[in-house]
Amino acid sequence: MKKSEGLLFLLFLVSSSLFSQQYNDFFINKACRVDFHFCGNAQQTAVFMDNVKLEPFWGGRHTQLDHDLNLGDYRFRVLDSISNRQIYINGFSSLYREWQSTAEALTTSKSFEQSIQFPFPKKAVTLIIEKRLDLDHWTELYRYVISPTDKLIQRTQPLSVPVKVIAHTASPDKAIDIAVIAEGYTLKEQKKFYHDARRLAENLLTHEPFTKYKSRINIYAIAAPSDESGISLSTDSLWKNTAVMSHFYTFYEPRYLTTTNTFKVRDLAALVPYDAIYVLANTSTYGGGGIFNFYALTAAGSNLATQVTVHEFGHSFAGLADEYFYDKQDALDGMYDIKKEPWEPNITSLVQFDRKWKAQLPESIVIPTPDTNSTKTKIGVFEGGGYLTKGLYRPYFDCRMRTNKAPEFCPVCQQAVERMILFLTE
Predict the structure, then answer these.
(1) Which residues, other chains included, contact 42 with Cβ-Cβ below 8 Å and sequence gap of 6+?
(2) In the chain, what are the domain boundaries?
(3) Is the peptide bond before 368 cis (omega within 30 degrees of 0)?
(4) Is the pTM of this model over 0.85?
(5) How many CB atoms lie within 10 A of CB 242?
(6) What are phi and psi of 182, to 5 degrees?
(7) 270-291: pLDDT as tens digits
(8) Taking Cα atoms as reference points, which of 8, 35, 45, 39 lies closest to residue 270?
(9) Given 3.40.50.720, 3.40.1230.10, 3.40.190.10, 3.40.390.10, which CATH number is that of 163-318?
């Protein structure tokens, strides 16, 4: 071995040793959950603290703590309060950000519950919450010091709710842990929930790249009881009293099924270690929703439940964008500024296309790519996506992120999902 090669190898061993020690240097194997509120309107965003909680399980990554995949409308950074060293970072999105793009936000101010979670620190840390400006730039919204000895950190006992293991293949630090939460299932419908959770989980594992990595996926069914069966439609005179009070007609879109009761969702998910949250709604009405690093929500009884389950998990787990678009106006038409490159890996405005799938394009492909029989099975640059007919482009003619007819994620979306799986498990 040459002297220079020996030095490089030694540096690699030292850096690897420091990297592997990072988790135990700064964190214990429990979770720190921070609840806060996003407040404002179309032009303004503010963060107001609610509380900090110690939770019993940390299901997230134990390595690559000070790196992220540059996903999400927001991110938070955790700094060691003594050295000011960044010891954890993660991106996320929110229902609030989507609401900001609606017409209502132009004339009204609102607040939305939001939560983030990271390993519980051994020493005092500084939490910084930031909002994305473009693909590479951020602005600080909030800064808060958290001391692990703070007597006001809530250390409450977990909720008393039955939990059933659907799949367990690896330890939480080496697995994707999915917390599936019952919504709209009464105590008498507990068996139905477990059946639905297993059915939809097994379906997810038939889709690539989840099939390839199913030995790294743990799934837990949390049977949260609802007082009433079913889901609120918002057009009914009475709303149903359910576990997390989800409802259709989010932003007045009939099919958009979400909940704004974030803290309750997190209380239930805290019963298990988790990387991802899936809320399973007991309804046959078509609909769902998914928000990156937040939660996914699907109507379990819909005829298209298996397709929608995968689609919404693409949003919440891998940060994939909707690739569909309409000629008529959509509630989320204002989500994207086509003068900037969107952060989602499966759409582009071409502003920074070299950061997306440009290197994967076949030779002589036309940009924009026409919809022809010869191009429909190739990676291209097809106009239309992100709810817009013009100005945004998708990588494949059809994909599970565009229609329910598409049998799978396209190659670009599969690559994004795989990248997230590897990031969280290796």
Answers:
(1) 100, 101, 105, 106
(2) 23-146, 163-318
(3) yes
(4) yes
(5) 27
(6) -75, 135
(7) 999 999 999 999 999 999 999 9
(8) 35
(9) 3.40.390.10
